[in-house]
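Entry 14. Structure prediction run on the chain below.
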Amino acid sequence: MDIAQYMTELGSAARQASRVVAASSTAVRNQALLAACDALDGAREQLALANAEDMERGRSNALSAALLDRLELTPTRIDSMLEGLRQVAALPDPVGSISDLNVLPSGIQVGRMRVPLGVIGIIYESRPNVTVEAASLCLKSGNATILRGGSEALASNAAIADCLAQGLQAAGLPVAAIQVLATADRAAVGQMITMPEYVDVIVPRGGKGLIERISKDARVPVIKHLDGVCHVYIDSGADLAMAQAIAINAKTQRYGTCNTMETLLIAASEAAAVLPPLAAAYDEAGVELRGCEQTRAILPNILAATEQDWYEEYLAPVLAIRIVDNLDEAIAHINQYGSQHTDTIVTRDHSRAMRFLREVDSSSVMVNASTRFADGFEYGLGAEIGISTDKLHARGPVGLEGLTSQKYIVLGEGQVRT
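Output returned:
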């Protein structure tokens, strides 16, 4: 296969399809999503066979148990894919909405309209259900998409792509609106991220190495997050029962997610009271603790934290703990070592809570809530394509609105500028 020619043809078809999708009605796009849902439901046997092929190849290639688990399409996961399509179809459509419409002294009205981005390239690993999630969000927001899944899920993704194409055909939309790469050749990724004439934005979903490589080499804008070094800060005078509940949930509710707490900061005035019961709870949950010198004076049996621990995204039952003198030191620590993902303060003091919200430079900043809430569904977005730690265009969970842009519109009645 000539990869350059293949990607050029694919990109050209996506660009043409994007214009048709952008001009389509909400009803037509919803029809495509629901028809794709029916096609997937009717293709369970084909999906299972394709996934079994991927699973067997994964075992032969010595994929880890964790990756095999992410790769597997169980009946329950297929049910979740179907429900996800129905939920996206039910979401409000941001495309075409007009905001900030004002009448100016000249008599013209100036506002902003939400419009699709165009063609979105999505690069992801392992989980074939991401194919459905990403494609549905892109289509609902009026975009065409080019999807490059992991080589380990090639057969599963191809089977899913067939069902998505059936949905598009049923609604009269071009099948090129959702294209899944039919090759595992890495050169295809290199082509996709360097053809701005066909692709408007890239969304990488995967490990830090993948995202860093894409960001470094891309000639197309990238919506990304590199890692989730999230913090909980227990403030002086905090409600300690609340603090304990939040700190336990933020770490132990799930270990392998980007919004899981990795470093716990505690005001020195509260450390002696809150650390022993927290340590007991973490010990019961099997969490390894690594602490600063002051923390180890209270919890002498835990490991010493190194400088690297403050930067670490463990994605595992490991937690770094640091005692700080005050809010200033907590904010300084977060802004130095954090990844601008999600950070929370537990406090009773309104002014300190507002300072934390203003001064912590992260995409989600919280007061008296677990970092685990940093999620598109929990934020009421319905679904998300990822969580962006960038500062331009989209920041935080990227839902339908994050897959659109805005343009100025002007409404006049014959006005001319004098």
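DSSP finds 14 helices and 16 strands in the chain.
Filed with the rest of this week's runs.
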